[in-house]
Amino acid sequence: MELKDYHYWLPKELIAQYPVERGREKLLVVDRQSGTLSHRLFSDFPENLKTGDVLVLNDSRVIPARLIGRKPTGGRVEVLLVKEHAPGKWTCLLKSSKSLKEGTILSFEQGFTARIEDRKGSGYEVVFSEPEILLTAGNIPLPPYIEREPEKSDVSAYQTVYACQDGSVAAPTAGLHFSHDMLDAIRSQGVELVFITLHVGPGTFTPVRVQRIEEHEMEPEEFALSEESARTIVKALEEKRRIIAVGTTTTRVIEYLIQTNGTVIPGTGETDLFIHNGYSFRGVDALLTNFHLPCSTLLMLVSAFGGYDLIMQAYRNAIERRYRFYSYGDAMFII
User: Fold this and answer.
1) Phi and psi for 197 in degrees, rounded to 5?
2) Helix, strand, or coil here: 239?
3) What does 93-150 look like in DSSP terms, one character per residue?
4) CATH 2.40.50.100 fits 66-137, yes or no
5) Are 145 and 326 within 8 A, CB to CB?
6) Where, residue-wise, is CATH 3.40.1780.10 in the chain?
7) Which CATH class is domain 3-62+153-334?
């Protein structure tokens, strides 16, 4: 398919700038078999679950990855921490009014410095002078479509309540809707909760720059899956119980493992799996997700799962009904 097929028009005022109380978001339920769309509140989500279902959640935690430094000239440089290779040595994305050279020293108001070592693809290798304070100096890296500076409330709001594994530069947003009380209620229904980790990197949001989407290449992202979680998922697959993925991140890990190994196995690794129209899903039976940007790989995955025509119809319907879009927005459950 072509990139233009995934474009849609969205009024700017529907881009959520702040979250609502967890559970009070709207929920659009998309039934693939009947083709029907049902409008609910997220507090109704447990009603869609049944005993024996397995709900798979991504427990990656967003790190305070956004830093503001200064060049020797005084020019401002925005630094986004992406991946740590050794204490104080990171791959970073750097944003500056002028190109940055190797050897440039950046200074930060907290008193530490950083040296640009090398260019690596679209990023840079950067060494920081005081790695022990680095992750206490930055801010939560809100997406650019949230057109405001991070606030104190974002520290908890832009984080799932079960996040515990540091490493993401963006939240796995489908999980933002859950409160502890709702998760407890879901467990009490006989639904098994399984946690896996996929650290969301900037590659997830890299614009698709090719017209034929099949030519796009995803940047790899790190994942980890425990023996207990793998065992629970495999048993559910064998017993033909529903695997419900919370978000595109958990979907990609499950599908990658099955595609690569024939089943879900524990361990760590990287996935660059790009799921788009024509992909045959082998592990995920239902998908909870947010509403995604036009022409994004996330929208392509959701369209592959729900069916292109039905998902684009659902997006149009959500816009007509004034749903809130993107990270702090409302949710869609595809069954």
Assistant:
1) -125, 125
2) coil
3) EEEESS---TTPEEE-TTS-EEEEEEEETTEEEEEES-HHHHHHH-B----TTS-S--
4) no
5) yes
6) 3-62+153-334
7) alpha beta
Kindly report the backbone phi and psi dihedral angles of residue 334, in degrees, each rounded to the nearest multiple of 5, phi listed first.
-105, 120
Strand partners, 268: 224
Amino acid letter for position 276 = H
Q: Residue 139 is which amino acid?
A: N
189 Cβ partners below 8 Å, 6+ apart?
A: 46, 49, 50, 51
What radius of gyration, in Å, describes the C-alpha atoms of the chain? 20
CATH 2.40.10.240, the chain: domain bounds: 66-137
The one-digit pLDDT tens for each residue of the chain (335 residues) are 999 999 999 999 999 999 999 999 999 999 999 999 999 999 999 999 999 999 999 999 999 999 999 999 999 999 999 999 999 999 999 999 888 999 999 999 999 999 999 988 789 999 999 999 998 899 999 999 999 999 999 999 999 999 999 999 999 999 999 999 999 999 999 999 999 999 999 877 788 999 999 999 999 999 999 999 999 999 999 999 999 999 999 999 999 999 999 999 999 999 999 999 999 999 999 999 999 999 999 999 999 999 999 999 999 999 999 999 999 999 999 99
The sign one gets for the Cα dihedral 221, 226, 227, 228 is: negative
d(CA 69, CA 285): 45
Say what angle helices 248-261 and 297-306 make with each other, to 10 degrees: 70
pTM of the predicted model, to two decimals?
0.94
Length of the chain: 335
Q: Coil, strand, or helix at residue 333?
A: strand
- Three-state SS at 29: strand
